[in-house]
Write a structure and sequence with these properties.
Elements: E1 4-7, E2 13-15, E3 19-26, E4 30-38, E5 55-58, E6 61-73, E7 76-85, H1 86-92, E8 95-104, H2 106-113, E9 120-124, E10 132-141, H3 142-153, E11 156-160, E12 163-167, E13 173-179, E14 184-192, E15 199-203, E16 215-219, E17 236-237, H4 244-254, E18 258-269, E19 283-288, E20 293-305, E21 313-316, E22 319-321, E23 341-344, E24 347-352, E25 358-363, E26 366-368
Parallel strand pairs: 9-12, 13-19, 15-17
Antiparallel strand pairs: 1-2, 1-5, 3-4, 3-20, 4-7, 5-6, 6-7, 8-10, 11-12, 14-18, 15-16, 18-25, 18-26, 19-20, 20-21, 22-23, 23-26, 24-25
Helix pairs in contact: 1-3, 2-3
Amino acid sequence: MRDLLIKNLEGKIERLTDYSVARKRTVNAEKSIDVTIYRTARNGHAYPMIANESELDYEGDPYIIKKLKERTIGKTVVAALTATHKIYDQLANNYIYDMITGTFTLQELLQFLLQGTGVSAQLTADGLPKSVTVENFGDDDSFSLLKSALGKFGAEYLPAANKIHVAKELGKTTDYQLRYRFNISDPEKSIDTSSLKTYIRGYGKQNEDGSYMAQVEYTSPLASVPGIGIRHAKPVRDDRFTNNDTLLEYCKAQLTDSINISITLTYIELRNAGIQNIDFGDYVWCIIDPFDIKTRIRLMAIEDYSNEKESPKFTLGELRRTATQVISGITRASRNISTLSVRLDDTFKVANAAYGDRIISTKVGEIND
């Protein structure tokens, strides 16, 4: 059983007992723990310290309790809580009042936005742009600025202890395969176009005469597909922008010009076949011939447990690659002209089945123009 410590707002520290922990780690999304704790004679000294904003230490990482429920099971009181990594608190509660404009490296933006947080950054710059141009970057909380900076550079991050690890991609490429009719069964595909937009306008800072210092419009190539056409998104109106190029890139990022595709399947791992060497951020092959999917996908999230005998769950997805694809199910007449880039956001959840087998239920993500 992995250790779990609690520190209350007064700084008192105690070790908890009679608990179970599920830890979730997701690239660019979350690092949190869900904890169930029973009030017993063994932890009577520490249980009263369980409260919102108290700090938990688990596997060397600090977490802040954000959600807490208590209930009874017979005569026993049980607390169920969710705690998020302390770094999110440090970033979200720190405000950068200054703004900067110009061309900066990612390291420079990280140093700027992390001021006053007590958080440091470990950057692996391989594969990242050397610099980007920003306009009025700042005047926001550090967490929002972090997400903005990483989006501009196409980078990922993961918090650990009191540091964030930043890189183009976390993990490595492997040759493990998830293959239809070999270790995948009964795939199902569904398509969602309910939020699809293909056209957007942007308006920057206004001059005294009512004209705009920056004004742009963007039409997605997806609008040329018969049956889709122009679909207007809500325009961007933001006084921070005085440059057309910067405003255009921002508008493109706001446009939902993608087609969501989800694929559900099960994957059976026979005993000793082994995917135990797959780690956070790694790539594996996903091959589903009936859906014309043959691509590498990534381990983007892990859920593991304080009980080390309980098998972890894995989430795979968030792969960006370019390929020639045909949009099916939208219009049969346009099949031969729909050459698009593909983004697959695949979600695989892996859990132990009987006798050591694993079952994965999967979602495969979206097509972008």
